[in-house]
Write the C-alpha cells for this entry.
Amino acid sequence: MNPAVWILILVPLGFFGMYVWRMKRDPDEDDRHDAGQAILDFARAFPTEAIRSLHMTVDGNAVFVRLHDNKAGFMRNMGKHHACMMIDPERITVEHLETGDGFVVTFIDNPKYSGAYRFKSAGEAAEVSLWLLGSYLEAAEHVADQAAEDPVSTPSPTSST
C-alpha cells in the first residue's frame, strides 16, 4: 500500500485514541487538590467568615479550615464542589492515629463525614488538631463568660405583714 494511505489512516486514528484517553481519565482527580476552589466554596457557604489557614488531607477529599476568630471549619470534596460546615467543637470527638500523621474525627451531628483523616506530615496533623482544641477552648471560655455575666438570681427577702 501507498505510505500516504497509511498516514491518512493512522493520523486520524492517533488523534481519536488521544481523545478517548483524555476523556477516560478521572477529571475529579485534578480538582481534588485545588485549594483555590476550596476557598471559593467556603466563601460562598460562609461569606462573613475570614479564612486564616487551611490544610488538605493527603487524598484531597477533605479540608480543615482555621478562621480568623479561632473557629474551625470542615470541607468535604464532592467532585466539582465542596460541602462546607462550621465545626461545633462540642459535637465532635477526635482521636489520634497510631501513625501520628492524622486523626479520627467523629461528627456527632453529621456521621457521614466522620472518618480517619491523614495529612502530609505529623506536624500538619498536630496543627489541625490544635485548631480543633483551640476552637473547643474558645467555646468553653465563651460559655464561662456568659455564665459570669449572668449573675445567679437570689431570691429577695419578702416582707410579710
Strands lie at 51-56, 62-67, 72-77, 82-86, 92-96, 102-107, 115-118. The CA atoms of residues 3 and 68 lie 67 Å apart.
